[in-house]
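INFO worker-7 received task bundle
INFO bundle size: 2
INFO processing item 0
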Amino acid sequence: MSLSSAKRCTRRLPKEHTTDGVRNPRNTSELKRNGVRPFDRLHMAGTRAGRSRASLNLHSDNVKYRLCHLAADLDMTPDNLAPQPTSALRPTFGYDLFLSHNRADKDWVRELATLLADHPYNGRPLRPWLDEQVLDPGELGRNAELTTALDRSRLLVVVLSPEAVASPWVQYELQYFLATRSPGEIIAIRRRSCEIPKALAGLDVLDWNDGPEREPNFSTLISRICPGSDVDSTKIIQEVKDAWWESLMSGTSGLDPTPTAENSALLAALLKYDIRAAAEEGLALQAFDQAGDCMLKLNPGDSYGMKMLLGEILAAAVLKNEAYRRIAPRFLAQEPDDALHPDLSFVVLRSLSKLAEIDGRLVDPSAVWSALVKLDGVGRLFLERKAAAVLGGRVVAKMRGSDLGDLLIRALTTGGEASQIAAIGGITMAEEGAEPVFYLPELDELAHNKRVPSAPSLPPSPRLVALLDRIDRDTSDFVRQALANGIADLQRAFGDRRSANNDQWQLLREEAPAHLIKNGPIIGIVRRITASNMEDIAPTLRIVDIACLTEPRIVDALLDQCGAFIIEEQDIASPLCRRLIGRNRRFAMLEKHRVDALTEGDRIALEPRCTTVLPGKAILHGSAHNG
């Protein structure tokens, strides 16, 4: 947001509710009722929290979360690579630092936030939290808007001045932070002369002025914010290159899926850095980016086995931690739109296929759709793209029989060549009897231990079979041949499934496209979120769910385990949009009346051509693995 727009945002706030610029929800009497104490009386609470934290030697933001999941964090055996239901309980550090300050220092803090946001930290930019850039304008709806940000911040940076020391909101933020964190996670900056509060006694306070000491001060601040920032990125790149070459030379380039030690070594190289750790997040992303670059540089004759292997590594990474779902869209963005050999699209679909084999609930349907749309981007479907589209069809076939899966298949029938081939496969493929193939022994072991038994392939419903007539046979020879083969497979596996009553989509609504779709297309199950129900619904969200934000001031960060968001139409520079974009979340904008018309449980597909809604009341099947 520009400085001018930031100032406009601040000016819109009622003065009586802006003790610190933008984040004063109510009056100071409420703070007193909530037990906010003066700085000096915070000292003992902070000391106790520090001792407790030191004895636990853990770094989560809530004691009960730390105790509950300590064992899972320490034990990374294959059994514990399976997904754990912790994402709603234990927020990740989405921000590197929370800037606590008084509005008297707003201009200076705004400039500091800009400098910090431009500073790299081991392959990624720093993420500071500044109220006016993140909070919705107007009266704070509830303290959770602040406390969630504090929970998700690795450090608290307190900008001290006479006004800040007297500010009830700075006191509140410090009190909340010290309740579960140690003073060692606080950085104090004395912007103007003032007494240092006893709660910060013992800290090395950084005295900052705009004189000749400014640059050394900034360097000192960066050294405190960015520990372990001396990692040489060229070393990471070389490690991945070496492991990649060894795996390629071990025979993985061909069709032989025999697991090798070199394959395991490549897995270890790509998972060497923890994507959850602030100092290693950027390094983990760099490692996978380098693997993607290696993939793109392979000759087509050497790529098949490495595509299969890299897809399995990505699946194993997602099973280890769902934060690795970020890699799939990075791979799709890394692959040129005019690539003749869609190696990275294949990798993404391979990873989704392996996840579907292990547990269909792990599959992100929007990721499947995005990969197939990527494949549609080339005018002619080369053989490599056809192979990737067939793989996409296998993933979609595993979703068949659920209303969400059927809706995805319907959307694919009107897509490009790759999408249509995947739709044909999704309708006609039967469960394969052969044992799954693994290039990675670790994933093989994990699948053996954790695979959820899958039911035999459901015959496609008449409404799905009827979709075959929507396929444009004139699209290409590839599509025409896939359709002929699919119909033959269908009749062989399930008999004649055509029905005289094919119109079973009569309650489905086709509407105008969304005003904006970010990181789409998007498909999922609508969950209506309000300020009053958000904390109850948050732990129940799945990757197939779409959080529909029905009113202002919902703490969207609580809902990050959902697959996407639907929000009311607004300026793309709004704080809500900036928050979602900053976290690289999928979201779509709809007009208010369309948001109001969505009901809990609706299945919805959003793409640039149209929006399709299958109302929850129209569900014709029992719930399957993807809704």
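INFO item 0 finished
INFO processing item 1
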Amino acid sequence: MKQQRQQQQQENKEENTYVNGNGNGCDESKCVSTTSMFDISNHSYTCYGEKENHGTDMMCADGYLPRTVDNETTVSGLDIHGEVTSFQYFTCCPHDFPAKTNVTRHCSDPTTNFVEPVGIGQSTNSSNMICEDETHQFPREMKSDLYGNPSYICCDSEQDKTFGNYLNETECVPYFSQFEYREGISYNVYGNLGAMTCDFPDGSFQFRRNVVVGNDGYFNWDCCKTGPATNPFVQDTTFKITVYPQIVLSSIAVFSCLIVIVGLLLPLFSEQRQQGIQQTNSSRRNRGQNEQDYSTYNLYLVYLAFPDLILNIYLLGMYGSYANQKFNENFYMVVVSTLFDADNMSILKAHEGSLIVACSTANLFLNAVVSYEVFILLRNCHETKINNPPSLKKVSLQAIVVYAFAICVFGISFYTGDVDNVATWCFFLVIYILPIGFVVCITVTISLRGFMPSATGKMKELAWYFFRIVVVFCFLWIPAFFLLFLGQFNNDLFYRVYVVFFLVCAIESIVSNCMVLTKSDVRKYVFDLITLSCIRSTNSQQENQY
């Protein structure tokens, strides 16, 4: 009984200390909540928040904790969903403020009416703040808002600055950044995954914790001093629909590209080796015959598969890391948003946009080169001229030039970055329109001049085969780019457009690689690789040589 009496006396002593103002009590200048009620907040932080924590959290700075002022009338405003809701007034109290002590309002709504203009990010003093209400004569500077704009409130007493910071005693804060007071809240929509981050370079509150997922799809988190940290993504149904189809398609695309590349390169290397042995044995005649065994046109397929392989490896790696809850705050995709760039709807991440542009440039211009070579082949057949296929050196040189140009395009796109710039848009139109227009002109010329019926046998098979590749490319790849341009002008479609585009990248690669099998010699090479017949054949040839 005596112990209970002493505890009650201690609580009464603490309560009297705060009520009488002899200690560091509640302070409304520590409020850092944001609402849509600009007539009250004057576009600054305010002491209004949602009581049920539906998105406009009651937040305080410097380790203070929010306490609802029950005798204040609620006001109506719009929440983060755009729906009308009630906001309750609160104040900010020390972490050890007695729970049974009632709190009251002592300050006005925020104002930006300074005597002398105050610049963004600048502090001010009491002589520059006007308090005309006789009952609230004492100004208190508030925290600058998200954009660095200062504001202040007028209170009925001077601010007690004896103890102004409780961050050392605070375990978690509801905001995500050391530099701005924005609550940790995000959501997942198709093509736009919210990543939970804590930006505290000083290492103070670096662990994501206390994740709460609401029925409306939004999720909140705190940033805490100690871990372990929770996963960066909430893997709901929207997350799975966005991530896993891309993983499946890109996996198939990477596998098919590797099959085509390896399947077409092995017989080329084997033939080159045999020619070297024959040359050593001075078998000139046989060497000349064997040079015709491998069609150099197949080498174009290898070079066409490399850009698809690179892009799909990137997509597989990035999407796979998100599925495994791995997230790098300095390197991530456009389909992921953090609170740092949640409002940035106009540009892609620099590295990702540059990679897309470079790979598409390589594909477009290589298809243009292939179209030209097919045009030469069909024209010679039509004029009954002897057609010499391009040499391995010529094919490789053409591919190297295209790859070098694609690398230059990557650099230009990466270092210019701003797709809203008119010069950059013109640059993109040139690298897309030129090769597309060239392929269309070649196709129309071949059709109008009747070159296709002139080809016979393997020449006709080769011509039709490459035109199937071009048709697949045009009907999948090119519309995807027009979709990208559409997304740049429509914020509602922006993220959905890009996630669909990435799916098309994988589908285009898969379909193109399937078209490879319509060419008889390519089909044989791929089948030999899958069944390992090429290895057995190579071993038999080596045994025959010795």
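INFO item 1 finished
INFO post-check item 1: The CA atoms of residues 188 and 236 lie 8 Å apart.
INFO post-check item 1: The longest helix spans residues 237-280.
INFO worker-7 idle
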